[in-house]
Design a protein that fits this description.
heterodimer; A: 181 residues; Nucleotidyltransferase, domain 5; five-stranded mixed beta sheet; 4 helices; B: 149 residues; 27% strand; Biopolymer transport protein ExbD (chain A); protein transport (chain A); transport (chain A); transmembrane helix (chain A); ExbD (chain A)
């Protein structure tokens, strides 16, 4: 009849490929699980207090107002319409004035940024403005860090003495004013 | 003379590979178990704004999110601007205070990340900020994506 005198193959599944299968699965999981890191602009809200804030000289307070049409107005005395792209430079001039211009801040330590919005302010304009404000401080701190320690601000370790020194040179004093009701 | 043959050691020199798949499986199971994906089903539409000078929040467990945007209705329709915390829509802004106060008790270093639709009006964000001040959760973060410049 048929050539049935062949040797029967033993019906076992080879375990050699098992490692490869596991490896594939492992690599798949390693690649697919992305832990998305939240990025954004951090702020510290002013704490709730019943006391009136201490009086601040007008020259030390940069008022930034974003109105309902999405226009940005800024200034220490009278606010005037400013293009968003100009906010950073204005703020840098204001903070680094060190008492030269009588209408701008006395020292970076005393410079305060007060942000005021309207109920109908578009959110993206507000964020653009805040981005500019943060950018101004970022650049100033970077300059300070470069001139003092010769390294960019990003390279200073969190909580280190150097970082504290730079932060204290240009403290971020941003206050959120009560909105117009 | 008696000639002694030196017995050579008969130990195998290769490491047995039989346990390799088990090791890999262990790793695999470890990864499968430890990666917790806290997926929140968004009931509001959030398109992130973009900004350049942004920071990363490294400590994920400190963060809790508030989503603000137009409510997703059936189909592609969008409704009024609503607030969502975790998995539910908050109808009343005043409820934010209690929710965040409880979260703050659990996690004193709480960071509240506001994920706001970029075309929303700022008034609702103002209301949320006021509630957060009342609750004492003062560290906030406006969630934005990195601007490609």
């Amino acid at each position: 009849m048929f050539g049935s005198d062949k040797e029967r193959e033993d019906p076992e599944i080879g375990g050699a490929g098992m490692a490869d299968i596991a490896f594939l699965l492992l690599i798949f999981f390693l690649l697919v699980t992305t832990i998305d890191v939240d990025t954004g602009i951090g702020l510290q809200l002013p704490p709730k207090s019943d006391q009136d804030p201490p009086p601040i000289k007008t020259r030390n307070m940069m008022k930034i107002l974003v109105n309902s049409q999405g226009q940005v107005l800024m200034g220490t005395g009278e606010t005037e319409a400013t293009p968003v792209t100009q906010v950073k430079q204005n703020l840098k001039d204001f903070v680094t004035n060190r008492g030269q211009d009588p209408n701008l801040s006395v020292s970076p330590d005393k410079a305060i940024v007060s942000i005021k919005t309207d109920r109908k302010t578009p959110y993206n304009v507000y964020i653009d403005m805040l981005d500019e404000v943060m950018g101004a401080y970022q650049e100033l701190r970077n300059q300070e860090s470069q001139s003092q320690f010769g390294v960019p601000y990003e390279q200073l370790k969190e909580g280190s003495e150097r970082k504290k020194a730079v932060d204290n040179a240009y403290p971020k004093k941003i206050s959120i004013a009560e909105p117009n009701k | 003379m008696g000639h002694f043959e030196k017995k050579s050691a008969k130990t195998k020199e290769d490491i047995p590979m039989a346990a390799m798949p088990d090791i890999i499986f262990m790793l695999l199971i470890f990864f499968m178990v430890t990666t917790v994906l806290r997926e929140v089903t968004l009931q509001v539409k959030v398109d992130y704004t973009q900004a350049q000078n942004i920071e990363k929040i490294e400590q994920k467990r400190l963060v809790s999110y508030i989503y603000v945007g137009p409510q997703k209705l059936s189909g592609t329709k969008l409704g009024a601007t609503k607030i969502q915390i975790d998995d539910s829509i908050i109808e009343d802004v005043a409820a934010v205070r209690n929710i965040m106060y409880d979260k703050l008790k659990e996690q004193p270093k709480l960071i509240v990340s506001l994920r706001v639709h970029d075309e929303a009006e700022f008034g609702i964000v103002t209301d949320i900020q006021e509630e957060l001040r009342e609750a004492g959760a003062l560290r906030i973060n406006y969630s934005t994506k990195q601007e490609q410049s």
